Amino acid sequence: MKRRPIPPYPQLGDDIFIEAYRTFKSNDKELTPRDLDDGTIHLDEWTPEKELTVQMAFEVSALKSLKAECSKIIRKNAECSIAIRWSSKGSMQSGWSNDSISLFDKIDGPRTVSMTIGTGSLRDTITIETAVLISKATSKAAASGEAHRCNIQGAIIGHIAHPSVIRIDGTGSVFPVYPTSDLSETDPLWQLECGWDDCRFSTFSKENVRILINTNHVDCPNEWKEGNNERNLSPLSKNIIRDAIGTMLIHVKHNEGEDAWKAIEGSADLHSADFERGSIAHALWHFFNTYEMNDSSPSRLMESSGKIKL
Amino acid sequence: MNYKPLKKTEARALIDSYASVGVTELIHDLTDDEKNLKKKFGERYWDKFPSSSSSDKSFKKIDEKDDLELAKLLYFDWLSLDGVISIREASDDGFWRNLTCRVVPAYTRCRWGHSGESPWNEGRFYNSPQRNSLKVLWWFLHLANQGDKIKTSKVIRNCGSDQISQIVDRVGKGYDVELTRAIFRVLGKLKNQTEISDALRKAMKLNTMRRETTSPTFFKNGYDGYALALFEASSK
Protein backbone atom coordinates (compact mmCIF):
# COMPACT_ATOMS: atom_id res chain seq x y z
CA MET A 1 0.00 0.00 0.00
CA LYS A 2 1.31 3.39 -0.95
CA ARG A 3 1.76 5.82 1.85
CA ARG A 4 2.47 9.41 1.11
CA PRO A 5 5.62 10.50 2.94
CA ILE A 6 4.76 11.88 6.35
CA PRO A 7 6.53 15.23 6.74
CA PRO A 8 7.42 16.42 10.23
CA TYR A 9 4.92 19.27 10.09
CA PRO A 10 1.13 19.53 10.15
CA GLN A 11 -0.77 19.11 6.89
CA LEU A 12 -4.34 19.59 5.76
CA GLY A 13 -6.39 16.56 6.81
CA ASP A 14 -7.77 14.10 4.27
CA ASP A 15 -11.24 14.90 5.57
CA ILE A 16 -11.16 18.51 4.46
CA PHE A 17 -13.92 19.23 1.93
CA ILE A 18 -13.34 22.07 -0.48
CA GLU A 19 -15.72 22.36 -3.39
CA ALA A 20 -13.90 22.55 -6.71
CA TYR A 21 -15.12 22.41 -10.31
CA ARG A 22 -12.97 20.51 -12.77
CA THR A 23 -13.14 21.25 -16.48
CA PHE A 24 -11.34 19.72 -19.45
CA LYS A 25 -10.87 21.70 -22.64
CA SER A 26 -9.16 21.31 -25.98
CA ASN A 27 -8.75 24.27 -28.32
CA ASP A 28 -11.21 26.22 -26.14
CA LYS A 29 -13.89 23.55 -26.55
CA GLU A 30 -15.16 22.01 -23.32
CA LEU A 31 -14.89 18.21 -23.19
CA THR A 32 -17.36 15.91 -21.49
CA PRO A 33 -15.69 13.28 -19.31
CA ARG A 34 -17.14 9.75 -19.35
CA ASP A 35 -16.61 7.48 -16.34
CA LEU A 36 -15.09 4.08 -17.10
CA ASP A 37 -15.53 0.89 -15.08
CA ASP A 38 -12.07 1.08 -13.56
CA GLY A 39 -12.51 4.52 -12.00
CA THR A 40 -10.68 6.38 -14.76
CA ILE A 41 -12.34 8.85 -17.10
CA HIS A 42 -12.31 9.09 -20.86
CA LEU A 43 -12.58 12.23 -22.96
CA ASP A 44 -14.44 10.98 -26.03
CA GLU A 45 -14.01 14.14 -28.13
CA TRP A 46 -10.27 14.40 -27.46
CA THR A 47 -7.28 12.55 -28.91
CA PRO A 48 -3.65 12.86 -27.78
CA GLU A 49 -2.82 14.65 -31.03
CA LYS A 50 -4.69 17.65 -29.61
CA GLU A 51 -3.65 19.83 -26.68
CA LEU A 52 -5.42 19.31 -23.37
CA THR A 53 -6.26 21.97 -20.79
CA VAL A 54 -7.29 21.07 -17.25
CA GLN A 55 -8.91 23.78 -15.19
CA MET A 56 -9.95 23.82 -11.53
CA ALA A 57 -12.39 26.54 -10.45
CA PHE A 58 -13.18 27.63 -6.90
CA GLU A 59 -15.89 29.82 -5.44
CA VAL A 60 -14.96 32.63 -3.04
CA SER A 61 -16.38 30.73 -0.07
CA ALA A 62 -14.28 27.65 -0.84
CA LEU A 63 -11.09 29.70 -1.13
CA LYS A 64 -11.78 31.55 2.11
CA SER A 65 -12.52 28.31 3.89
CA LEU A 66 -9.28 26.78 2.56
CA LYS A 67 -7.29 29.85 3.59
CA ALA A 68 -8.68 29.54 7.11
CA GLU A 69 -7.63 25.87 7.26
CA CYS A 70 -4.16 26.67 5.94
CA SER A 71 -3.67 29.46 8.46
CA LYS A 72 -3.96 26.86 11.20
CA ILE A 73 -0.98 24.88 9.93
CA ILE A 74 1.47 27.39 8.42
CA ARG A 75 3.37 30.15 10.15
CA LYS A 76 2.06 33.65 10.49
CA ASN A 77 3.17 35.76 7.49
CA ALA A 78 3.77 32.68 5.32
CA GLU A 79 1.45 32.26 2.33
CA CYS A 80 0.08 29.37 0.36
CA SER A 81 -1.35 28.71 -3.08
CA ILE A 82 -3.21 26.09 -5.09
CA ALA A 83 -1.48 24.46 -8.09
CA ILE A 84 -2.09 21.47 -10.35
CA ARG A 85 0.32 18.54 -10.48
CA TRP A 86 0.26 15.97 -13.27
CA SER A 87 2.06 12.71 -13.80
CA SER A 88 1.96 10.08 -16.50
CA LYS A 89 4.21 7.08 -16.12
CA GLY A 90 3.22 5.84 -19.58
CA SER A 91 4.24 9.16 -21.14
CA MET A 92 7.37 9.23 -18.94
CA GLN A 93 6.59 12.79 -17.87
CA SER A 94 5.27 14.76 -14.93
CA GLY A 95 5.13 18.37 -13.91
CA TRP A 96 3.35 21.28 -12.29
CA SER A 97 1.11 24.00 -13.63
CA ASN A 98 2.81 27.36 -14.14
CA ASP A 99 -0.46 28.90 -13.04
CA SER A 100 -1.60 29.01 -9.40
CA ILE A 101 -4.14 30.66 -7.10
CA SER A 102 -2.71 32.56 -4.16
CA LEU A 103 -4.95 32.17 -1.13
CA PHE A 104 -3.43 35.24 0.43
CA ASP A 105 -4.21 37.68 -2.38
CA LYS A 106 -7.44 39.60 -2.13
CA ILE A 107 -10.19 37.08 -2.91
CA ASP A 108 -13.11 39.03 -4.36
CA GLY A 109 -14.45 36.55 -6.89
CA PRO A 110 -14.23 32.97 -8.18
CA ARG A 111 -10.73 31.94 -9.26
CA THR A 112 -9.35 29.31 -11.59
CA VAL A 113 -6.05 27.53 -11.97
CA SER A 114 -5.26 25.77 -15.22
CA MET A 115 -2.57 23.97 -17.11
CA THR A 116 -2.19 22.89 -20.71
CA ILE A 117 -0.35 19.87 -22.04
CA GLY A 118 0.89 20.15 -25.60
CA THR A 119 -0.07 18.11 -28.64
CA GLY A 120 1.25 14.56 -29.10
CA SER A 121 2.56 14.31 -25.56
CA LEU A 122 0.51 11.72 -23.73
CA ARG A 123 -0.16 7.98 -23.70
CA ASP A 124 -1.73 5.37 -21.34
CA THR A 125 -3.08 7.47 -18.45
CA ILE A 126 -2.48 10.84 -16.83
CA THR A 127 -3.15 11.59 -13.17
CA ILE A 128 -4.17 15.11 -12.20
CA GLU A 129 -3.85 16.24 -8.58
CA THR A 130 -4.68 19.58 -7.00
CA ALA A 131 -2.20 20.52 -4.29
CA VAL A 132 -1.89 23.26 -1.73
CA LEU A 133 1.66 24.53 -1.25
CA ILE A 134 3.60 27.12 0.65
CA SER A 135 4.23 29.81 -1.95
CA LYS A 136 5.95 32.25 0.35
CA ALA A 137 7.91 31.34 3.45
CA THR A 138 8.35 33.89 6.21
CA SER A 139 11.77 35.13 7.25
CA LYS A 140 10.51 36.01 10.71
CA ALA A 141 11.27 33.74 13.64
CA ALA A 142 8.55 31.29 14.59
CA ALA A 143 6.05 32.73 17.03
CA SER A 144 5.12 30.88 20.17
CA GLY A 145 3.45 27.56 19.41
CA GLU A 146 4.28 27.49 15.70
CA ALA A 147 7.88 26.23 15.65
CA HIS A 148 6.66 22.85 14.35
CA ARG A 149 4.79 24.42 11.45
CA CYS A 150 6.15 24.19 7.94
CA ASN A 151 8.03 27.17 6.53
CA ILE A 152 9.63 25.66 3.42
CA GLN A 153 8.90 27.43 0.18
CA GLY A 154 7.33 24.95 -2.26
CA ALA A 155 6.35 22.43 0.45
CA ILE A 156 3.12 20.55 -0.26
CA ILE A 157 0.80 20.93 2.72
CA GLY A 158 -2.20 19.08 1.36
CA HIS A 159 -4.34 17.94 -1.55
CA ILE A 160 -7.85 18.94 -2.55
CA ALA A 161 -10.24 16.27 -3.77
CA HIS A 162 -9.26 12.89 -5.18
CA PRO A 163 -6.98 12.73 -8.19
CA SER A 164 -8.55 12.51 -11.64
CA VAL A 165 -7.14 9.82 -13.89
CA ILE A 166 -7.73 10.28 -17.61
CA ARG A 167 -7.44 7.18 -19.75
CA ILE A 168 -5.79 7.89 -23.06
CA ASP A 169 -5.17 4.34 -24.38
CA GLY A 170 -6.85 1.04 -23.59
CA THR A 171 -10.41 0.24 -22.66
CA GLY A 172 -10.21 0.16 -18.89
CA SER A 173 -12.45 -2.87 -18.53
CA VAL A 174 -12.85 -5.73 -21.02
CA PHE A 175 -10.20 -8.46 -20.98
CA PRO A 176 -8.38 -8.38 -24.33
CA VAL A 177 -9.10 -11.64 -26.18
CA TYR A 178 -7.58 -12.34 -29.60
CA PRO A 179 -8.66 -15.26 -31.76
CA THR A 180 -5.81 -16.47 -33.99
CA SER A 181 -5.62 -18.98 -36.83
CA ASP A 182 -1.80 -18.95 -36.78
CA LEU A 183 -1.74 -21.84 -34.32
CA SER A 184 -2.24 -25.48 -35.31
CA GLU A 185 -4.91 -27.87 -34.07
CA THR A 186 -2.33 -29.52 -31.81
CA ASP A 187 -1.42 -26.21 -30.12
CA PRO A 188 -3.23 -25.31 -26.88
CA LEU A 189 -6.78 -23.94 -27.03
CA TRP A 190 -5.67 -20.72 -25.37
CA GLN A 191 -2.60 -19.07 -24.01
CA LEU A 192 -1.96 -15.92 -22.04
CA GLU A 193 0.59 -13.42 -23.34
CA CYS A 194 2.06 -11.39 -20.48
CA GLY A 195 4.21 -8.64 -21.97
CA TRP A 196 3.97 -5.89 -19.38
CA ASP A 197 6.99 -4.20 -17.83
CA ASP A 198 5.67 -3.16 -14.43
CA CYS A 199 2.20 -4.34 -13.48
CA ARG A 200 1.70 -1.28 -11.28
CA PHE A 201 1.93 1.10 -14.21
CA SER A 202 1.44 -0.92 -17.40
CA THR A 203 -2.12 -0.58 -18.66
CA PHE A 204 -4.55 -3.47 -18.64
CA SER A 205 -4.75 -3.43 -22.43
CA LYS A 206 -3.93 -5.57 -25.44
CA GLU A 207 -0.44 -4.07 -25.70
CA ASN A 208 0.51 -5.63 -22.36
CA VAL A 209 -1.68 -8.67 -21.84
CA ARG A 210 -4.00 -10.73 -24.00
CA ILE A 211 -5.57 -14.14 -24.32
CA LEU A 212 -4.84 -15.86 -27.61
CA ILE A 213 -7.63 -18.24 -28.62
CA ASN A 214 -6.59 -20.95 -31.08
CA THR A 215 -9.37 -21.03 -33.69
CA ASN A 216 -7.95 -24.25 -35.16
CA HIS A 217 -8.42 -26.13 -31.90
CA VAL A 218 -11.23 -28.66 -31.90
CA ASP A 219 -12.71 -27.13 -28.73
CA CYS A 220 -12.55 -23.51 -29.88
CA PRO A 221 -15.80 -21.80 -28.80
CA ASN A 222 -17.94 -20.81 -31.79
CA GLU A 223 -17.96 -17.10 -30.98
CA TRP A 224 -14.25 -16.84 -31.82
CA LYS A 225 -14.39 -18.68 -35.13
CA GLU A 226 -13.89 -16.73 -38.36
CA GLY A 227 -17.00 -15.18 -39.83
CA ASN A 228 -18.95 -15.46 -36.60
CA ASN A 229 -19.95 -12.04 -35.32
CA GLU A 230 -21.58 -13.42 -32.18
CA ARG A 231 -19.72 -11.98 -29.20
CA ASN A 232 -21.81 -13.29 -26.32
CA LEU A 233 -19.36 -15.24 -24.24
CA SER A 234 -19.95 -18.98 -24.02
CA PRO A 235 -19.43 -20.72 -20.65
CA LEU A 236 -16.09 -22.06 -21.94
CA SER A 237 -14.88 -18.57 -22.92
CA LYS A 238 -15.90 -17.23 -19.52
CA ASN A 239 -13.92 -20.00 -17.86
CA ILE A 240 -10.90 -19.23 -20.03
CA ILE A 241 -11.02 -15.58 -18.93
CA ARG A 242 -11.42 -16.56 -15.27
CA ASP A 243 -8.45 -18.92 -15.53
CA ALA A 244 -6.46 -16.21 -17.32
CA ILE A 245 -7.06 -13.80 -14.43
CA GLY A 246 -5.80 -16.44 -11.98
CA THR A 247 -2.80 -17.09 -14.23
CA MET A 248 -2.04 -13.36 -14.42
CA LEU A 249 -1.97 -13.22 -10.65
CA ILE A 250 0.41 -16.19 -10.46
CA HIS A 251 2.59 -14.50 -13.10
CA VAL A 252 2.82 -11.33 -10.98
CA LYS A 253 3.69 -13.33 -7.85
CA HIS A 254 6.29 -15.33 -9.72
CA ASN A 255 7.91 -12.50 -11.66
CA GLU A 256 7.52 -9.52 -9.36
CA GLY A 257 7.63 -11.36 -6.04
CA GLU A 258 5.31 -12.12 -3.16
CA ASP A 259 6.05 -8.79 -1.50
CA ALA A 260 5.08 -6.83 -4.59
CA TRP A 261 1.81 -8.74 -4.80
CA LYS A 262 1.11 -8.31 -1.09
CA ALA A 263 1.54 -4.54 -1.49
CA ILE A 264 -0.98 -4.54 -4.36
CA GLU A 265 -3.44 -6.86 -2.66
CA GLY A 266 -3.31 -4.93 0.61
CA SER A 267 -4.05 -1.51 -0.90
CA ALA A 268 -6.86 -0.05 1.16
CA ASP A 269 -8.30 2.05 -1.66
CA LEU A 270 -7.47 3.45 -5.05
CA HIS A 271 -6.47 6.83 -3.65
CA SER A 272 -3.67 5.43 -1.54
CA ALA A 273 -2.69 2.53 -3.81
CA ASP A 274 0.81 2.36 -5.25
CA PHE A 275 -0.49 1.49 -8.70
CA GLU A 276 -2.07 3.52 -11.44
CA ARG A 277 -5.73 3.30 -12.22
CA GLY A 278 -6.32 1.14 -15.25
CA SER A 279 -3.09 -0.78 -14.69
CA ILE A 280 -2.73 -4.55 -14.59
CA ALA A 281 -2.24 -4.33 -10.83
CA HIS A 282 -5.49 -2.37 -10.57
CA ALA A 283 -7.38 -5.06 -12.50
CA LEU A 284 -5.94 -7.81 -10.28
CA TRP A 285 -6.65 -5.82 -7.11
CA HIS A 286 -10.24 -5.34 -8.27
CA PHE A 287 -10.86 -9.01 -9.07
CA PHE A 288 -9.03 -10.29 -5.99
CA ASN A 289 -10.91 -8.14 -3.51
CA THR A 290 -14.31 -8.05 -5.21
CA TYR A 291 -14.52 -11.85 -5.52
CA GLU A 292 -12.62 -12.65 -2.32
CA MET A 293 -10.08 -14.78 -4.12
CA ASN A 294 -7.79 -17.04 -2.12
CA ASP A 295 -4.09 -16.96 -2.99
CA SER A 296 -2.87 -19.30 -0.25
CA SER A 297 -1.92 -21.86 -2.90
CA PRO A 298 -2.08 -22.08 -6.71
CA SER A 299 -4.90 -24.64 -6.55
CA ARG A 300 -6.95 -22.46 -4.14
CA LEU A 301 -6.29 -19.46 -6.34
CA MET A 302 -7.51 -21.13 -9.52
CA GLU A 303 -10.50 -22.53 -7.64
CA SER A 304 -11.43 -19.09 -6.31
CA SER A 305 -10.92 -17.38 -9.68
CA GLY A 306 -13.82 -19.54 -10.86
CA LYS A 307 -16.10 -17.31 -8.74
CA ILE A 308 -15.43 -14.24 -10.87
CA LYS A 309 -18.66 -13.03 -12.46
CA LEU A 310 -18.43 -12.10 -16.14
CA MET B 1 7.51 8.58 -38.32
CA ASN B 2 5.82 5.66 -40.00
CA TYR B 3 6.76 2.64 -37.91
CA LYS B 4 5.47 -0.65 -36.52
CA PRO B 5 5.37 -0.82 -32.71
CA LEU B 6 6.86 -4.12 -31.62
CA LYS B 7 5.45 -6.10 -28.69
CA LYS B 8 7.88 -7.57 -26.21
CA THR B 9 6.94 -11.11 -27.23
CA GLU B 10 7.52 -10.27 -30.91
CA ALA B 11 10.86 -8.65 -30.07
CA ARG B 12 11.94 -11.70 -28.08
CA ALA B 13 10.99 -13.99 -30.98
CA LEU B 14 13.02 -11.84 -33.40
CA ILE B 15 16.16 -11.82 -31.25
CA ASP B 16 15.80 -15.56 -30.60
CA SER B 17 15.57 -16.12 -34.35
CA TYR B 18 18.76 -14.10 -35.00
CA ALA B 19 20.57 -15.98 -32.25
CA SER B 20 19.43 -19.40 -33.40
CA VAL B 21 20.38 -18.80 -37.03
CA GLY B 22 23.65 -17.06 -36.08
CA VAL B 23 22.98 -13.79 -37.86
CA THR B 24 22.96 -10.17 -36.73
CA GLU B 25 19.69 -9.46 -38.46
CA LEU B 26 17.24 -10.81 -40.98
CA ILE B 27 15.69 -8.96 -43.88
CA HIS B 28 12.47 -7.22 -42.89
CA ASP B 29 9.88 -5.32 -44.86
CA LEU B 30 10.70 -1.82 -43.58
CA THR B 31 8.74 1.39 -44.13
CA ASP B 32 10.46 4.20 -46.04
CA ASP B 33 11.11 6.07 -42.76
CA GLU B 34 12.65 2.95 -41.24
CA LYS B 35 14.80 2.35 -44.34
CA ASN B 36 15.98 5.95 -44.20
CA LEU B 37 16.98 5.62 -40.54
CA LYS B 38 18.70 2.31 -41.17
CA LYS B 39 20.69 3.94 -43.98
CA LYS B 40 21.89 6.70 -41.66
CA PHE B 41 23.05 4.15 -39.10
CA GLY B 42 24.76 2.17 -41.86
CA GLU B 43 26.64 5.24 -43.05
CA ARG B 44 27.76 6.18 -39.55
CA TYR B 45 28.87 2.69 -38.53
CA TRP B 46 30.01 1.30 -41.90
CA ASP B 47 33.29 0.15 -40.30
CA LYS B 48 31.60 -1.52 -37.31
CA PHE B 49 28.57 -3.33 -38.64
CA PRO B 50 29.03 -6.85 -40.04
CA SER B 51 30.29 -6.80 -43.61
CA SER B 52 27.43 -9.06 -44.62
CA SER B 53 23.97 -8.66 -43.11
CA SER B 54 23.76 -12.42 -42.78
CA SER B 55 26.90 -12.77 -40.69
CA ASP B 56 27.15 -12.48 -36.93
CA LYS B 57 30.92 -12.82 -36.78
CA SER B 58 32.48 -9.76 -38.34
CA PHE B 59 31.04 -6.92 -36.25
CA LYS B 60 33.23 -4.60 -34.19
CA LYS B 61 32.50 -3.03 -30.83
CA ILE B 62 31.17 0.51 -30.77
CA ASP B 63 32.87 2.32 -27.91
CA GLU B 64 30.77 4.00 -25.20
CA LYS B 65 32.51 7.27 -26.06
CA ASP B 66 30.26 7.33 -29.11
CA ASP B 67 27.10 7.55 -26.96
CA LEU B 68 26.86 11.33 -26.61
CA GLU B 69 27.47 12.01 -30.29
CA LEU B 70 24.87 9.45 -31.36
CA ALA B 71 22.44 10.81 -28.76
CA LYS B 72 22.77 14.31 -30.27
CA LEU B 73 22.26 12.95 -33.79
CA LEU B 74 19.20 10.98 -32.73
CA TYR B 75 17.57 13.77 -30.75
CA PHE B 76 18.35 16.80 -32.90
CA ASP B 77 18.37 15.22 -36.39
CA TRP B 78 17.33 11.65 -37.08
CA LEU B 79 14.45 11.38 -34.58
CA SER B 80 13.83 15.02 -33.79
CA LEU B 81 10.67 16.38 -32.21
CA ASP B 82 10.60 18.82 -35.09
CA GLY B 83 8.22 16.75 -37.19
CA VAL B 84 9.88 13.32 -37.15
CA ILE B 85 8.48 11.85 -33.93
CA SER B 86 6.34 13.09 -31.02
CA ILE B 87 6.81 12.66 -27.29
CA ARG B 88 3.91 10.21 -27.42
CA GLU B 89 5.91 8.04 -29.83
CA ALA B 90 9.12 8.51 -27.88
CA SER B 91 7.41 7.17 -24.76
CA ASP B 92 6.15 4.08 -26.61
CA ASP B 93 8.36 1.13 -25.68
CA GLY B 94 7.13 -0.64 -28.82
CA PHE B 95 8.60 2.18 -30.93
CA TRP B 96 12.09 1.65 -29.47
CA ARG B 97 11.85 -2.16 -29.49
CA ASN B 98 11.07 -1.93 -33.19
CA LEU B 99 14.19 0.15 -33.84
CA THR B 100 16.58 -1.96 -31.77
CA CYS B 101 15.22 -5.38 -32.77
CA ARG B 102 13.91 -4.93 -36.29
CA VAL B 103 15.36 -1.80 -37.93
CA VAL B 104 18.96 -1.53 -36.66
CA PRO B 105 19.74 -4.58 -34.48
CA ALA B 106 23.35 -4.35 -35.67
CA TYR B 107 23.84 -1.12 -33.68
CA THR B 108 22.80 -2.62 -30.33
CA ARG B 109 24.73 -5.81 -31.14
CA CYS B 110 27.91 -3.77 -31.76
CA ARG B 111 27.42 -1.45 -28.78
CA TRP B 112 26.17 -3.88 -26.13
CA GLY B 113 26.62 -7.40 -27.46
CA HIS B 114 30.02 -8.12 -25.97
CA SER B 115 29.45 -8.18 -22.25
CA GLY B 116 27.66 -10.54 -19.90
CA GLU B 117 26.66 -14.11 -20.43
CA SER B 118 24.47 -13.60 -23.46
CA PRO B 119 25.95 -12.17 -26.66
CA TRP B 120 22.47 -10.75 -27.26
CA ASN B 121 22.04 -8.31 -24.41
CA GLU B 122 18.25 -8.68 -24.10
CA GLY B 123 17.85 -5.73 -21.74
CA ARG B 124 19.34 -3.36 -24.31
CA PHE B 125 17.17 -4.77 -27.12
CA TYR B 126 13.72 -5.31 -25.60
CA ASN B 127 13.63 -6.67 -22.07
CA SER B 128 14.21 -3.55 -19.93
CA PRO B 129 12.41 -0.50 -21.34
CA GLN B 130 14.56 1.93 -19.36
CA ARG B 131 17.71 0.35 -20.78
CA ASN B 132 16.78 0.11 -24.45
CA SER B 133 20.00 1.21 -26.16
CA LEU B 134 18.44 3.90 -28.37
CA LYS B 135 15.64 5.01 -26.06
CA VAL B 136 18.14 5.75 -23.30
CA LEU B 137 20.21 8.01 -25.55
CA TRP B 138 17.22 9.89 -26.98
CA TRP B 139 15.64 10.51 -23.58
CA PHE B 140 18.97 11.53 -22.05
CA LEU B 141 19.19 14.31 -24.62
CA HIS B 142 15.53 15.25 -24.18
CA LEU B 143 16.03 15.56 -20.43
CA ALA B 144 19.21 17.61 -20.94
CA ASN B 145 17.97 19.77 -23.84
CA GLN B 146 18.78 23.45 -23.33
CA GLY B 147 17.08 24.62 -26.51
CA ASP B 148 19.77 23.98 -29.10
CA LYS B 149 22.63 21.62 -29.86
CA ILE B 150 25.45 23.96 -28.76
CA LYS B 151 24.00 24.80 -25.35
CA THR B 152 23.02 21.18 -24.76
CA SER B 153 26.47 19.90 -25.77
CA LYS B 154 27.97 22.26 -23.22
CA VAL B 155 25.97 20.94 -20.26
CA ILE B 156 26.52 17.26 -21.12
CA ARG B 157 30.17 17.51 -22.19
CA ASN B 158 31.48 15.76 -19.07
CA CYS B 159 28.75 13.11 -18.87
CA GLY B 160 29.41 9.43 -19.53
CA SER B 161 27.36 6.25 -19.56
CA ASP B 162 27.07 6.31 -15.74
CA GLN B 163 25.37 9.69 -15.79
CA ILE B 164 23.12 8.61 -18.65
CA SER B 165 21.91 5.68 -16.53
CA GLN B 166 21.61 7.76 -13.35
CA ILE B 167 19.29 10.20 -15.06
CA VAL B 168 17.28 7.94 -17.37
CA ASP B 169 16.82 5.06 -14.90
CA ARG B 170 14.96 7.31 -12.46
CA VAL B 171 11.72 7.74 -14.35
CA GLY B 172 9.53 7.26 -11.25
CA LYS B 173 6.02 8.35 -12.17
CA GLY B 174 7.41 10.42 -15.04
CA TYR B 175 10.35 12.79 -15.47
CA ASP B 176 9.80 16.41 -14.52
CA VAL B 177 11.53 17.61 -17.68
CA GLU B 178 11.90 21.22 -16.52
CA LEU B 179 13.65 19.94 -13.41
CA THR B 180 16.04 17.58 -15.19
CA ARG B 181 17.02 20.41 -17.54
CA ALA B 182 17.75 22.61 -14.52
CA ILE B 183 19.81 19.78 -13.00
CA PHE B 184 21.88 19.66 -16.19
CA ARG B 185 22.55 23.38 -15.95
CA VAL B 186 24.12 22.73 -12.54
CA LEU B 187 25.99 19.68 -13.86
CA GLY B 188 27.37 21.76 -16.72
CA LYS B 189 29.25 23.88 -14.23
CA LEU B 190 31.03 20.93 -12.62
CA LYS B 191 34.53 20.21 -13.78
CA ASN B 192 35.05 16.53 -14.42
CA GLN B 193 33.28 13.20 -14.65
CA THR B 194 34.28 11.97 -11.18
CA GLU B 195 32.91 15.12 -9.59
CA ILE B 196 29.73 14.89 -11.69
CA SER B 197 29.16 11.22 -10.97
CA ASP B 198 29.29 11.58 -7.20
CA ALA B 199 27.31 14.81 -7.05
CA LEU B 200 24.63 13.58 -9.45
CA ARG B 201 24.08 10.29 -7.62
CA LYS B 202 23.54 12.07 -4.30
CA ALA B 203 21.38 14.81 -5.78
CA MET B 204 19.12 12.38 -7.67
CA LYS B 205 18.69 10.27 -4.54
CA LEU B 206 17.68 13.33 -2.54
CA ASN B 207 15.31 14.44 -5.28
CA THR B 208 13.50 11.09 -5.21
CA MET B 209 12.44 11.88 -1.65
CA ARG B 210 12.08 15.64 -1.93
CA ARG B 211 9.87 15.66 -5.00
CA GLU B 212 7.13 13.87 -3.02
CA THR B 213 6.88 16.73 -0.56
CA THR B 214 8.04 19.80 -2.47
CA SER B 215 7.29 21.55 -5.74
CA PRO B 216 10.12 23.29 -7.57
CA THR B 217 7.72 25.91 -8.97
CA PHE B 218 7.44 27.80 -5.69
CA PHE B 219 11.02 27.22 -4.67
CA LYS B 220 13.24 30.28 -4.39
CA ASN B 221 14.47 30.90 -7.98
CA GLY B 222 12.12 28.19 -9.24
CA TYR B 223 13.52 25.09 -10.93
CA ASP B 224 17.10 26.40 -11.03
CA GLY B 225 16.98 27.25 -7.33
CA TYR B 226 15.53 23.82 -6.52
CA ALA B 227 18.20 22.03 -8.59
CA LEU B 228 21.04 23.99 -7.01
CA ALA B 229 19.63 23.32 -3.54
CA LEU B 230 19.59 19.59 -4.31
CA PHE B 231 23.31 19.58 -5.07
CA GLU B 232 24.14 21.82 -2.10
CA ALA B 233 22.09 19.83 0.41
CA SER B 234 23.33 16.45 -0.81
CA SER B 235 27.00 17.49 -0.69
CA LYS B 236 26.91 18.28 3.01
Report on the architecture of this protein.
With 310 residues, chain A is α+β, with helices and mostly antiparallel strands. Chain A is built from five helices and 14 strands. Chain A has helices spanning 60-71, 235-256, 258-265, 280-290, 298-305; strands spanning 21-26, 29-31, 33-35, 41-43, 52-58, 79-88, 93-96, 101-102, 111-117, 125-136, 156-167, 177-180, 190-194, 209-214. In chain A, the strands form four sheets. In chain A, strands 6, 7, 8, 10 and 11 form a five-stranded antiparallel beta sheet that branches. In chain A, helix 2 crosses helix 3 (258-265) and helix 2 (235-256) packs antiparallel against helix 5. Chain A is elongated and about 80 Å long. The mean pLDDT of chain B is 89. The longest helix of chain B is centred in the C-terminal third of the chain and has 21 residues, at 193-213. Chain B has helices at residues 8-21, 32-44, 67-78, 87-90, 93-103, 105-112, 122-127, 133-144, 149-156, 161-168, 177-187, 193-213, 222-234, and one strand spanning 175-176. With 236 residues, chain B is mainly α. The termini of chain B are far apart. The A-B interface holds A 4-5, 7, 48, 81, 83, 85, 87-98, 100, 119-123, 127, 131, 133-136, 152-156, 193, 195, 197, 201, 207 and B 5, 7-9, 86-94, 128-129, 139, 171-178, 209, 212-220, 226.
